[in-house]
Amino acid sequence: MKRVLAIFLFLPFLLQAQTEVSVLGKEILPFEMHSVNKGNLNFNSFPNAKGFAVIFFCNHCPMAKLYDKRMQELDQKFAVQGVHVLAINPMDSLVYEEENWKEMVKRASRNKFVVPYVQDGSQEIAKQFQAQHTPQAYVVWKEEGRWFVRYEGSFDDNGEHPDSATPFLANAISDLLEGKPVTAPQTESFGCRIFYRKK
Amino acid sequence: MKSRILLFSLFLLSLKSFGQYNEIWIPGLEDASTYNLNVYDTLKQLRPTGNQTVTIGVNGDFWGPTLVLHKGQDVHMNVTNHLNDSTTVHWHGMHLPAVMDGGPHQVIPPGATWQPYWNVSNRAGTYWYHPHLHTMTTEQLMKGMGGFIIVQDDEEAAMNLPRTYGADDFPIALSSRKYTAANQIVIANAAYGDYMLVNGTSSPQLTLPKQLVRLRILNVENERGYNLGFSDNRNFYIIANDGGMLNAPVQVNRVKLMVGERIEILVDLSGDAVGSSLDLTAYNSGFALGFPGGEPNTSGVFGSLLNNSDFVALHLVVANPTANPVVGIPSSLSNEVYWTANDATVSRSIAVTGGQGPVPFTFDNTGFNMTTINKTVNLDAIEKWTVTNNQIFGHAFHIHDVEFKIVARNGSAANVGAHEQGWKDVFYLPVNESVTFVAKFNDYADAEHPFMYHCHFGLHEDAGMMGQFVVVNNVGTEEINESEISLYPNPTQELLHISNANLNGRIYYVTVLNEMGRTVMMLPSPDLSRGIDVSHLSAGIYLVQLTDKASKKIIVKKFIKE
Ligand SMILES: [Cu+2]
Does the predicted TM-score (pTM) go above 0.90? Predict the structure, then answer.
């Protein structure tokens, strides 16, 4: 118990922020996902998948809270066309009580998540994308059996007013589905910072 | 004629609805002996169109309530950190024990409540609270974390001055921000903002009554200084500085206000027409390099659309007077007797160093280190500190614990500005100047917990332009025997008492942790006679860590919350 205490006490000092980086064009290695509402998943769980909209997300962030509904609508629009939305929570649930599994279950059920709400406990998924914020959106696209980042940035550009927002993420998916290069492959992400554990 | 008036009022109306200015938010005034400050990640519509900005609010969505403190009374703070990062809250200008000061060592982890308290001994004046987490101060402050403190005392209450908050007495936090394309505040590598933000309001305007008004102005910028004046060059009167009321009002038509500094001014609007307007203007053009915000650049780390220009800091509109306006500028205010250079028994010198190329500014070539105590001061010592700046840029020097008297600039008392008489806790240190101040380090000794001295420019402080000092005396306390400690009642629902024995003053710190090891309560030198209020904790097993003041050993006990 004493050792555990010592570790927890100093956690805030172990956390550090990533510096801004782009992973556009980077190959993403398939990863295993533990979701609170759809069981254990990986890319093969979606046989028709052409691509995924990977959204780093969390319980706490007030900006993320504005996107619950939009995520579900995006999935409902594009899943039939082979693009699935994944909501991935990379927040350190040891530091932030609000981000624990139980609270994720509540969030997914309260807001009727149709998309898998995945706990990235080791932050390994977020590290592959070098994600900075929640919410932050990426599109990974299947090309010759491998997966590449073809969009990175925000879901859209207005948290509180979806009607007046430019739907960056949806536009990128539409471009890719039409076989076109993404018109705006990189936008600014904003929200709450993701702090990575040093060890 | 009538239709012309109608047309004119329609024109005024349209100006109002499509006008370029927004009436500034006046933070709510709270007057209590216990304050609950909840620090939140939040959002605010800071830009006129488009996305909301990610902000930090204290009990709200940007900045926090104005706290009234009464000289001579105790105040208790419950600061709860709801951020997804650690933070600290520093009570800027307050004279209090180091362990209550909220500097970089009093880290409040996410989810924890920090409960400092002290007896208010500061004079009536305008103070403030803000984050002080090392390397994160700029980000948290720029996002909006902070608030005003107004100290009241009998001396000031007897003065014939405007003091009806929000009616003839207004808090004004001057700042500016730079925004990204997605309307987010630029924090890294941005010394200056492009757009004014006053009390969290963009394109700020303040409506003032046609009478003598009191403005409490705080510079809460990252680096920019303000050379303030009114757009018609009228005179105004400085009645208070950082540490409270001056002995007499100082008439000026310009005053420089650097980051962290406060002034209270009186300005007479009784001769202005209702409906007329004027500006509180920053006359920031034409300074030599070294004045913060005087750079010619409009972009880049040190660039800004406001740099090296005269710009509107706050648009002012004159409205009807209040019922019983205060009339007349007092000829005298206070009767303070200040330290002189001759009172000091210890002299210290600090040199500004670094700042060349990528090398950050430092003091005495030593960057801030959490574990290095740079100065040791004896309790009750009266000391004279001289800070010299022979580097390329100006700074705003701030010291915790004390209010000081500036006794010389470049070695001469005659160089000290009329506007910087009175007690101070921040001063402008221009290029090629030295500033000498005298302070008495009384009341609070603590060999473990240091106070800070630092440049108040966010980026300079975060990069290490900070040092720490401890105030020491030789009065020891008796080591606690673990058998003296028992927690009762246990289990408990409301209050937790530490011991039957009187351990007051012998327990340096109490930390309560939940089963997961998360810190939930932090109580610096708690007043054990009150017991510890644990009524808000959820049911479960908790650990209490008690730090013995004498040995600094930690004693761990367990209790059950029902
Ligand atoms: Cu500085």
Answer: yes
